[in-house]
# Entry
Amino acid sequence: MKFLEIEKIILEDDARGMSSLYKKIKKGYIERSTDLILNTNGKIFISSGFYILNSKSPETDGPPGVIALAKTLTALGNDVFIVTDKFSIDIFKGMYDKDKVLEFPILSHVESNSYANKLIKEIDPKLLISIERAGFADDGKYRNFKGIDFSDYNAKIDYLFEQLPKSIGIGDGGNEIGMGNYKNEILELGIYSNPSVTTTSENIIASTSNWGAFGLIAGISMKKGKNYLPSVEEGKQMIQKSVSLGAVEGLSGEAKPWVDGRSLDEDKICLEKLNLLF
# Structure
């Protein structure tokens, strides 16, 4: 039952309706996502990078979770690439192996579909993971949590997920890749009026997407009998590093080491509780 305990921990202090959504969906997504990863061996793509319009910068939710998960998957013997766009690439290149950070260009729908096909053929990933990456609404546009269209600032990475059958989405609000799995429930509960329609094999919901990634690492750690989670201090350092590279807090748009309205001391609660499981 510890996998369900992980799900409860990553949904604590929820401010965007994910706890209500959790009551409506099939439980056990941490264990199912863990099994999907452990049954995969080879190259893995992790997509991320969420652009904040009022600051013209990507947000702090995403990069720490991506880096922590990439390190875990690499330790398991996989070859991990980060896929993002020009607005977030400097953040990830500053936190990860520059040669493993790929820029997906901002193109038309047709061109993006072709580019996704080319990238998959060239690199041959066996699994796709998205962490806090906007997904298509039903009109093919991208909208932030206020419902504002920011499609001009977001590469159409969704087309990767349409072409590869094994994938995991991680989100915290309803507009991210993978939330298409729960589109009807999100609308029914009034959580978000323009939910993503992009689906994934499994989808993890959490109070922040970083926490969702940490929950997945905790699941992997459970199955492998070894704790791969970052320490609380490492978690803080990753947030601070992302800000030093240009990331901002997503709600205010301010260049401060907060995540979705949570200070470092408030944000650390998740890693504290997850690490206590080991």
In short: Residues 64 and 238 are 5 Å apart (CA to CA). Residues 2-275 form a domain with the inorganic pyrophosphatase (n-terminal core) fold (CATH 3.90.1640.20). The longest helix spans residues 209-224. The beta strands are 43-48, 51-52, 57-58, 79-84, 101-103, 127-131, 167-171, 202-205.
